[in-house]
């Protein structure tokens, strides 16, 4: 089903708001840091002196500078946003209302920053290395502003939620594209890659390009990239514009290892043991994005997994049985309806194809306030359902892993993530009924 005019308009608006969020980062983050500075002066005078003595203000100055470096990087990311097929030229950052809330000092910092980095706004031609598909009209947990028809990008003021997604994207860059993230990647992505290699061990390396691997919810695309680097034909799928913009930039507009420096940990001072926990820079990428074996198909498709791969765009369901492997990493719990995710994964796999999963069950839509459904099963229920849908679980284990934590901080969450390798053993259509058949599931 083709997207309606209204869908397209809503998509344009959402994309524009994301671009405004990137462009507003400096003023928003500087303002938050300035609040810390102002709070010092709410202390009794003697305490202000004490705080001065331990050089807390100097730390805030360093954070200001780090914010400006992050902003420089983020502006580069959206410099060529036009090539995503949406108009962005008419966008304003913040608007008068936003300016009114900023101190003169912050406004001066932002202005001088914008002057110094004026070149970043110029649009230049790039030649994409991955394919971007613009059917991204899905609604998801990073799309809270989509239904706010009042919010027009002109003068749009990003919400705390928008900024939170942008700040999380910076931490996601550490996970996927930095040397520091290797520890976490080795725990999460290595077992998945090894399982894939083992499953297709009889396929010669030069023939791997004939094996099609799909990675839905690809995030910043490192797992998909690694799979392509092994020589498999790989497609990532992602619906968050934050993720798409950054991964597109990393994959297509980065030419050197450690080309960019970001400061992902400056936005929270909680649970830091020392200044460097917050202020340490992280360099990205740790690998050359162009290092995929030539001739290996590698693509990134934008849009909601359930919409893009449902086959609703054509009468013949072209995706049915198309994929030899589907890799889901920290993804299945993004489902509103896990039954449909499992059915989709099963339906898109070729008979005998492999589904490799790793992740917790942090149901993303639990307690949502948007009225969306959310089916929140426990692990046993998910696995039971997978078997009913037509999978045989060949191997399973628990993998303890972090997810985008500040590794140097005083707090680290560990997920006891479920890992499994499953194969498609029966056709869902014949044996389980279609999408609307509620008798079997
Ligand atoms: C927890 S992150 C995991 C990202 C990546 N797989 C990793 O391990 O770092 C889940 C990702 O799935 C994406 N996502 C959630 N629902 C989606 C959907 N319906 N279609 C496509 N992507 C989706 C989110 O935007 C997010 O990037």
Automatic annotation (TrEMBL):
<dbReference type="GO" id="GO:0032259">
    <property type="term" value="P:methylation"/>
</dbReference>
<dbReference type="InterPro" id="IPR012901">
    <property type="entry name" value="CARME"/>
</dbReference>
<feature type="region of interest" description="Disordered">
    <location>
        <begin position="92"/>
        <end position="163"/>
    </location>
</feature>
<protein>
    <recommendedName>
        <fullName>carnosine N-methyltransferase</fullName>
        <ecNumber>2.1.1.22</ecNumber>
    </recommendedName>
</protein>
<comment type="similarity">
    <text>Belongs to the carnosine N-methyltransferase family.</text>
</comment>
<dbReference type="InterPro" id="IPR029063">
    <property type="entry name" value="SAM-dependent_MTases_sf"/>
</dbReference>
<keyword id="KW-0489">Methyltransferase</keyword>
<keyword id="KW-0949">S-adenosyl-L-methionine</keyword>
<feature type="compositionally biased region" description="Basic and acidic residues">
    <location>
        <begin position="98"/>
        <end position="122"/>
    </location>
</feature>
<keyword id="KW-0808">Transferase</keyword>
<dbReference type="Pfam" id="PF07942">
    <property type="entry name" value="CARME"/>
</dbReference>
<feature type="compositionally biased region" description="Basic residues">
    <location>
        <begin position="126"/>
        <end position="138"/>
    </location>
</feature>
<dbReference type="GO" id="GO:0030735">
    <property type="term" value="F:carnosine N-methyltransferase activity"/>
</dbReference>
């Amino acid at each position: 089903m083709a997207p309606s005019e209204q869908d397209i308009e809503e998509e344009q608006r959402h994309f524009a708001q994301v671009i405004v969020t990137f462009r507003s980062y400096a003023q928003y983050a500087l303002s938050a840091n300035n609040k810390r500075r102002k709070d010092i002066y709410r202390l009794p005078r003697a305490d202000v002196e004490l705080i001065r003595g331990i050089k807390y203000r100097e730390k805030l100055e360093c954070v200001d500078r780090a914010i400006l470096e992050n902003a420089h990087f983020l502006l580069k990311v959206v410099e060529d946003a036009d090539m995503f097929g949406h108009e962005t030229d008419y966008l304003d950052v913040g608007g008068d209302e936003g300016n009114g809330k900023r101190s003169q000092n912050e406004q001066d910092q932002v202005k001088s920053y914008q002057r110094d980095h004026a070149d970043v706004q110029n649009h230049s031609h790039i030649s994409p290395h991955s394919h971007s598909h613009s059917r991204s009209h899905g609604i998801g947990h990073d799309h809270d502003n989509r239904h706010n028809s009042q919010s027009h990008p002109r003068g749009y003021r990003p919400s705390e939620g928008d900024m939170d997604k942008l700040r999380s994207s910076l931490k996601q860059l550490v996970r996927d594209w930095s040397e520091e993230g290797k520890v976490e990647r080795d725990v999460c992505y290595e077992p998945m890659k090894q399982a894939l290699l083992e499953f297709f061990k009889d396929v010669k390396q030069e023939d791997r390009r004939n094996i099609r691997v799909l990675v839905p919810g690809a995030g910043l695309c490192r797992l998909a990239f690694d799979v392509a680097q092994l020589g498999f034909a790989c497609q990532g799928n992602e619906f968050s514009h934050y993720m798409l913009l950054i991964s597109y930039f990393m994959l297509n507009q980065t030419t050197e290892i450690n080309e960019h420096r970001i400061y992902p940990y400056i936005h929270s001072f909680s649970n830091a043991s020392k200044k460097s926990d917050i202020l340490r820079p992280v360099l990205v990428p740790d690998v050359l994005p162009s290092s995929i074996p030539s001739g290996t198909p590698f693509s990134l498709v934008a849009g909601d997994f359930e919409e893009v791969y449902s086959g609703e765009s054509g009468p013949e369901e072209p995706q049915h049985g198309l994929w030899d492997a589907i890799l889901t990493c920290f993804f299945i719990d993004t489902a509103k309806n896990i039954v449909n995710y499992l059915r989709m994964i099963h339906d898109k796999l070729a008979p005998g194809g492999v589904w490799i999963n790793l992740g917790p069950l942090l149901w993303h839509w639990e307690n949502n306030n948007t009225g969306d459904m959310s089916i929140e099963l426990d692990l046993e229920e998910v696995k039971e359902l997978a078997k009913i849908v037509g999978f045989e679980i060949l191997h399973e284990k628990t993998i303890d892993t972090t997810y985008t934590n500040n590794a140097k901080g005083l707090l680290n969450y560990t997920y006891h993530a479920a890992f499994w390798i499953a194969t498609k053993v029966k056709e869902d259509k014949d044996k389980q009924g279609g999408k609307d058949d509620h008798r079997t599931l």
